[in-house]
Write a structure and sequence with these properties.
7 strands, alpha+beta, two-stranded parallel ribbon
């Protein structure tokens, strides 16, 4: 079974160490296109949830965020995921987490299981849970795809066509409300698929893979 690692284009993911490690382990590396977090939606959704939880706990100066991190992550891992229908903790360990209240309740009868019996039961539960998770993730993916396709109309560009490229760089002292994020111009070099193109620009050292949502045709008015 082939394994893939999907990341954004952060420098920590472009390091030679990670590239060599992926090569040794036989992992295919995939990258999201620039300014297109939708390609890695599961991680971005997790970041949004994590930040919203931090916002309800940290002090005004936000310097105590590291103190809250283990508690916030534990609560997230113990909650049921809307896509898998299981908590992340259960999917990884085959059991529900131990809460403070569990320490005050009477011991569970299953505590008398032998180690081989416990291991066999956990392995059996994990195998069944993985099958259900794959089925639920497939359904969630289909649903998300249908909603996305309803309101999406892909533009098409030809090699050599002049385009404007979305580049949301912000500058100190300038309000983004007055700033144009499509000032960078370039041209399409190659079409990879319906969603991504290789684009060159005089402002860059080399070509970049750009999502079609971040491109607009250059209009000439006479």
């Amino acid at each position: 079974m082939a394994h893939c690692l999907l990341t954004d284009q952060g420098s920590e993911f472009e390091a030679e160490l990670l590239a060599e490690l992926a090569k040794i382990l036989g992992i295919t590396r995939l990258r999201t296109s620039a300014y297109s977090p939708q390609a890695n939606g599961a991680v971005e959704s997790w970041h949004r949830t994590l930040n919203s939880m931090f916002a309800k706990c940290v002090r005004t100066d936000q310097k105590d965020w590291s103190d809250w991190l283990p508690y916030i992550v534990f609560c997230y891992n113990a909650a049921e995921n809307s896509a898998t229908k299981f908590s992340p903790f259960f999917v990884f360990t085959g059991r529900t987490p131990i809460w403070t209240v569990d320490l005050t309740l009477p011991a569970n009868a299953k505590a008398s299981e032998s180690v081989p019996e416990y291991v066999a039961n956990v392995a059996n539960k994990l195998e069944k849970a993985y099958d259900v998770v794959r089925t639920n993730l497939a359904k969630a993916g289909e649903s998300a795809s249908k909603w996305h396709n309803r309101r999406t109309h892909l533009a098409k560009f030809q090699p050599g066509e002049a385009v404007r490229i979305f580049y949301p760089r912000r500058y100190p002292g300038r309000t983004p409300k007055w700033q144009s994020f499509y000032r960078t111009e370039g041209w399409v070099e190659h079409r990879l698929n319906d969603a991504t193109y290789i684009v060159r620009s005089k402002a860059w050292k080399g070509p970049k893979v750009i999502h079609v949502d971040k491109l607009k045709p250059v209009r000439q008015f006479e």
